[in-house]
Write a structure and sequence with these properties.
2 copies of one chain form a homodimer.
Chain A (H helix, E strand, L loop, with lengths): L14 E4 L9 E5 L19 E2 L4 E2 L4 E5 L14 E2 L4 E2 L9 H14 L5 E7 L1 H12 L4 E7 L7 H15 L17 H15 L2 H7 L17 H16 L2 H13 L6 H9 L3 E7 L7 H13 L4 E6 L15 H10 L3
Parallel strand pairs in A: 2-5, 2-8, 3-4, 8-9, 9-10, 10-11
Antiparallel strand pairs in A: 1-5, 6-7
Helix pairs in contact in A: 1-2, 3-4, 3-7, 4-6
Chain lengths: 343, 343
């Protein structure tokens, strides 16, 4: 049963686990991916291989780590491009709208299936960090430590505006077919590419683009309408690669879900958080203009106002929002210290 | 003869003049519009009606003001959607690429036609401000005062990236037809709408969007994939209105021209500016993240290093890049004082 009142069944979940659950079950950690991630968090090709692995902050020698592709995704977990068992065709636009709570509910079932009765920590960045917050709200007694990186309790008007541009590009692509492109044997490649190009600019800092590319041109010829500056080639490459690995419906559904996230507007949030003993560690990065420090500070206030134990630090990093996937100075040590602090 | 070596003839220019040229010809002011402006600067519907008019800083009771649609435009001046006299069809992608110098050359001819032998001032914001700089470089003895607002001497990698997204949206619209959409009886409406929506976010400040719209929804119903938040309706409205009044080819050509602007990379710029007696007034706005204060400060340094008289101020305004079209505190007085200062 979803928050919208609709039912979705069956639900398949793609997941990976790393490490071994202790006999007392006290060492489980769930890792929550961001908008375009998947279950492969650690190891070769893992999206968080700097954070999750043997000897890393989310230490797979020490913790039993669970990482799953989220509901609505396109990397193995049921999502809008999955087959609707009632019709034998892809759900497409008939897939129900989701909430972060729905995503958490699926992960809770997965943890139950794996025999995890409580979490040493839930860890996530960006959308993943927002999901960690939702975890605590939905199950205030389940998690000891919540690590929330480069996230927010709700999107700003500018955040929503960028999402709207991306969805507009996708849904006005003639190959979108009202979201039934799979049945038409097409993909809204152009729209998805443009959406990703626009979004990608918001994931990096202006200074990163400047330092990496500046105004360097690839060729030395006369001016041209074709891509010429290195930053254009880079952006197009990002867009084209994304189209190969990501589903447009999932992109539309998950960005739309995020627009509506606003847990503190719901009185049940305060009720839940007043009871929780979960400790929060928030981290933001000074060059992140998508989820800037002000958004983390607001969440800090919201938590503390309810008596939740929470700390925050802004770290210096030139890499914008994407810093949470990288290793800016102090970042890994900070997460490690929080996860191992017995207090 | 254009900078590219190609010739464009004939060239029509749409222009307006306000006020009367003094007998000694010493009171002429040229006003340069931004990317999507036109010749109608003053009066009802004028894009700079707060700045240009009777009793305003660019005082039409006092100055003879000339405002023209720039070369490559779509508001009366010859541009890529004009008819190519050699073929009887629209130029489309056969229109030559332009430089700011080409735009200045056309304006210089217009001024000669109007009997203007020197300028009391050239005034412009954004692209218009960049054009004012080019004016001085191309004719260092022609202009007494240069007013450059919310501009830059060259685009940043992030600026180019946003332009690239817009052009990608336009040129991958199936109705683009390689730029020959007019011959196909179509318009790349979707691409142009998406391009404008993305660009519009960069014209306003995040705090403006937040203050004006926040997370307010238009309707009270359940979540939906359709536009719902006010900021979405606003952006879409901006995009749709733009498609009605602006040509996609002009948008592609002028944004592309701007990408290549980099006058200080050309040694002739230093040569010209060392000889000029033009005084510059630069203004930036603290919430403008498209052409931020650092870009104005860089231009200030570049000018001063060549012995050019130049001053700069950052004004406080919550309205982002669009501030140059509005009336933030101190702005109009500052421009007025500079234009009337006899020193």
């Amino acid at each position: 049963m979803l928050a919208s009142g609709r039912t979705l069944a069956p639900v398949e979940v793609a997941y990976e686990t790393y490490g071994r659950l202790d006999d007392d079950g006290g060492n489980a950690v769930v890792v929550c991916h961001a908008l375009t991630g998947d279950a492969r968090a650690a190891g070769e090709g893992g999206w968080w291989r700097t954070m999750v692995g043997p000897g890393l902050p989310v230490d797979t020698d020490r913790y039993f780590v669970v990482s799953s592709n989220l509901l609505g995704g396109c990397r193995g977990t049921t999502g809008p491009s999955s087959t609707d068992p009632r019709t034998g065709r892809p759900y497409g636009p008939d897939f129900p709208l989701l909430t972060l709570g729905d995503l958490v509910a699926v992960q809770r079932r997965l943890l139950a299936h794996l025999g995890v009765a409580r979490l040493h920590a839930a860890v996530g960045g960006s959308l993943g960090g927002m999901q960690v917050l939702q975890w605590v709200i939905d199950d205030p007694g389940f998690i000891d430590r919540a690590v929330v990186v480069a996230a927010s309790s709700r999107l700003s008007a500018e955040n929503i505006a960028f999402s709207a541009v991306g969805r507009e590009a996708i849904t006005s692509d003639p190959d979108w077919h009202g979201g039934r492109y799979l049945e038409h044997g097409t993909l809204p490649r152009t729209g998805l590419r443009v959406a990703r190009m626009a979004a990608h600019i918001t994931y990096v800092a202006a200074q990163t683009l400047e330092g990496k590319f500046g105004r360097t041109r690839r060729a030395d010829g006369p001016p041209s309408l074709e891509p010429d500056f290195e930053v254009e080639h880079y952006l197009r490459h990002q867009g084209e690669g994304f189209v190969e690995r990501f589903d447009a419906l999932t992109y539309v559904y998950l960005t739309r879900m995020l627009d509506y996230v606003d847990p503190f507007a719901d009185p049940r949030t305060a009720e839940a958080l007043r009871r929780t003993r979960t400790r929060f560690q928030l981290t933001s990065f000074d060059s992140d203009w998508r989820f800037d420090t002000a958004q983390s500070l607001r969440l800090l206030e919201q938590l503390r106002a309810l008596g939740v134990r929470a700390e925050h630090a802004e770290l210096s990093s030139p890499h914008g929002h994407d810093s949470f996937l990288l290793t800016p100075p102090g970042y890994l040590d900070r997460v490690r210290a929080f996860l191992t602090d017995p207090s």
